[in-house]
Write a structure and sequence with these properties.
With 286 residues, the protein is mainly α. It has 2 domains: 22-100, no CATH class; 101-286, Hypothetical protein af1432, CATH 1.10.3210.10. It contains 17 helices and no strands. It has helices at 3-14, 24-34, 40-48, 51-60, 64-67, 75-82, 84-100, 113-131, 135-147, 151-173, 177-185, 189-199, 204-212, 224-239, 255-261, 265-273, 275-282. The N and C termini lie far apart (38 Å). It binds fe (ii) ion (FE2) (2 copies). One fe (ii) ion binds next to loops.
Length: 286
């Protein structure tokens, strides 16, 4: 264990200002949309206070992925035609990009790679949830997929300094990369990511996605299905080489998550061979 790194990380997570920030509007909208009795007009007026986000939504809602072939010229139309949950997903895309779209040193991810990985995991997670007729999960896993690896943005520099030790520990002890992260630095990217989400005031279910995306069977029972979907989507994207970085070969696909999602081997293969198509759809929302 590198004690000085652990101490530095203790400091970073206790002093929230050093963790990445998001505009407050994001958690406000996520929490509003979670409320089944939410007033559409209230959401629209909240969003329209932020011109940059509104402009981004209008751009995103005319992308092939979100538009579903409809042309949309206003925020109100977007909410009515596409629905609040879709608009919430667009806000998440528009605002998390600044946090996630950077070079992630220690994990060997060039600029754009983590962002691409997160978007792919988000889209694939939502696809799996919809195909499996899990509508409630589909509304959550897109956001979950986008932010699941956010802890890597904080750990990157520390991993860069200890990469050899982490990798050696992984190989010598036959454990996953993130178990070795904790052994060497005192924390893994899931734990740090959870702290980031707490700072952002994101709901518990999303905190669980971040904390347990590598160990879905350990998540609180109520959220295990959602966590499992993101876990499987993450594994498929890594197998397909999307954002694989320095740790990608040392992650496991949980049998528990496969059972929980109800996916068959041939379905998993189908999603895997569909990844290039997914990346194609992603182009105009990146
Ligand atoms: Fe991860
Ligand atoms: Fe990931």
């Amino acid at each position: 264990m590198h004690e000085h790194i652990k101490q530095r990380l203790d400091q970073i997570i206790s002093n929230l200002t050093q963790l990445p920030s998001l505009p407050d509007i994001v958690s406000r909208i996520i929490n509003m949309v979670n409320d089944p009795n939410v007033d559409f007009n209230l959401v629209a007026s909240e969003i329209s206070k932020d011109q940059a986000i509104t402009a981004n939504i209008l751009k995103l809602c005319n992308s092939a992925y979100f538009s579903k072939g409809k042309e949309i010229a206003s925020l109100d139309r977007a909410i009515v035609t596409l629905g609040l949950k879709e608009v919430k997903d667009m806000i998440v895309v528009a605002t998390t990009k600044q946090v996630l779209d950077k070079t992630i040193m220690g994990y060997d991810l060039a600029k754009g790679e983590l962002w691409k990985h997160n978007l792919a995991v988000a889209m694939l997670s939502k696809q799996i949830a919809l195909d499996k007729k899990k509508k409630a999960a589909a509304d959550i896993v897109f956001t979950g997929g986008i932010i699941h690896d956010v802890g890597k943005t904080v750990l990157a520099l520390f991993v860069a300094n200890t990469f050899k030790d982490i990798l050696n520990y992984t190989i010598e002890n036959q454990v996953s990369f993130n178990e070795a992260e904790r052994e060497i630095m005192g924390y893994n990217h899931q734990e740090i990511g959870k702290k980031v989400l707490q700072k952002w005031k994101f709901p518990e279910v999303l905190q669980d996605v971040v904390e347990f995306h590598h160990t879905p069977s350990l998540a609180p029972e109520v959220n295990r299905e959602v966590v499992s979907i993101v876990h499987v989507a993450n594994a498929i994207c890594l197998m397909a080489g999307v954002g694989i970085g320095g740790d990608g070969l040392y992650q496991e696909l949980s049998q528990y998550a496969i059972e929980k999602t109800g996916l068959t081997e041939s379905e998993i293969e189908k999603y895997y061979s569909n990844v290039p198509e997914l990346l194609n759809q992603m182009k105009n929302i990146m």
